[in-house]
Design goal:
Layout: E1 8-11, E2 18-22, H1 33-40, E3 45-49, H2 66-80, E4 85-90, H3 92-103, E5 108-114, H4 123-136, H5 139-149, H6 152-157, H7 159-171, H8 174-186, E6 200-205, H9 213-223, E7 228-232, H10 239-242, H11 244-257
Parallel strand pairs: 2-3, 2-4, 4-5, 5-6, 6-7
Antiparallel strand pairs: 1-3
Helix pairs in contact: 1-11, 2-3, 4-8, 5-7
Length: 259
């Protein structure tokens, strides 16, 4: 396990309970913008960071493993002097959260795992995507990525937001994106789920083509003792962005339970 100093944005009262937000592959901390004000207004200290290889975080030489991504979060907490935090992650961020729940449970008061999977195959798909991005850049996958992130109805109603998200994907470093594809290619957390003792909420979207609730969300919720699954209507893979009110409500419910 290695650790890099990831880029972070910290908002809210210094003494408030800390909530760490972890982004999906192809995005950065900006994907969580809709959640910031509702949480800081409730007294939480919101820490958003860019996963290694994304946004303004370093792009260290690969290969990366999920343990490296988890180690980056532990380094972030140490950097900020935070002993224990709530963790919210979507897709790759949720995978990171599951690793943390297995290997660093004492550092987390709760986990909220959004639109994610414990085993997201086939591996060849991720290897092919890494090759494509290395050859042609993240712009080559931007349109398809956003097509999975939001529903067609949202895309039609919010063309400016779709353009913003497409630009976000294109802005990600090619090698960082490819390295994280390979993390997902090699990942299998299914056998580790029963080891997670952190109170956990799993959120899925009814229209998520990447990690649908059945089977992905259900497998996680059934595998983690005491976890529950909530399914949000009219939400694709970036459900926290498309349906921010409902995702934020569920996140607040989870983290407030563990105050």
């Amino acid at each position: 396990m290695s650790s890099v100093r990831v880029h972070r944005v910290v908002e809210g009262p210094a003494a408030g309970p800390v909530v760490v937000f972890s982004n999906s592959i192809g995005s950065d901390h900006r994907m969580w913008e809709p959640q910031v004000a509702p949480l800081t207004e409730r007294g939480f200290r919101v820490v958003r960071y860019d996963t290694r290889g994304h946004g303004s975080s370093p792009v260290p030489p690969g290969p990366y493993e999920l343990a490296d991504l988890g180690g980056d979060v532990l380094g972030l907490l140490d950097d900020l002097g935070v002993e224990r935090a709530h963790f919210v992650g979507l897709s790759l961020g949720g995978m990171t959260g599951m690793w943390l729940g297995v290997h660093a449970a004492e550092r987390f008061a709760s986990l909220t795992l959004c639109c994610t999977s414990a085993l997201l195959g086939p591996p060849e798909m991720w290897a092919d995507r890494a090759r494509l991005v290395r050859a042609e850049g993240t712009g080559a996958v931007a349109e398809a990525s956003v097509g999975r992130w939001v529903t067609p109805g949202y895309a039609q109603a919010h063309p400016d937001q779709v353009a913003y998200l497409r630009e976000m994907v294109t802005a990600q470093p090619d090698e960082g994106y490819a390295g994280c594809c390979e993390v997902i290619e090699r990942m299998d957390l299914t056998g580790d789920l029963p080891k997670i003792s952190v109170p956990t909420l799993v959120i899925a979207g009814t229209d998520d083509p990447s990690t649908p609730a059945e089977p992905h969300g259900r497998v996680i919720a059934d595998g983690i003792p005491g976890a529950r699954l909530e399914v949000v209507a009219s939400a694709a893979h970036l459900g926290s962005y498309e349906q921010p009110d409902e995702f934020t409500r569920l996140i607040l419910e989870r983290i407030t339970e563990e105050q």
